[in-house]
Amino acid sequence: MAEYYDPDGLPTAVVYEDEHGPLIRTSPFGHHGPVLGMTFDRWRQLSTAVNTAVDAHFATRYSAAPQ
Predict the structure, then answer these.
(1) Residue 64 has pLDDT above 90, yes or no
(2) Number of domains into which the chain is organized
(3) 17, 23 Cβ separation under 8 angstroms
(4) Which pTM value belongs to this model?
(5) Are 42 and 48 in contact (CB under 8 A)?
């Protein structure tokens, strides 16, 4: 899913439960665009992966900047 979506507002998130337990339903683009549904464990894994990638990007970017 490599497509650009124009955000139409702030990201959305809702917690709900089904037969598998609590789940997070979220859209980083507001009310339009893809909606992701996942378990809390998967959310934590995704959050960690995103934070790690952002930290690595800026660490590399700032280490290459002239002092």
Answers:
(1) no
(2) 1
(3) yes
(4) 0.69
(5) no
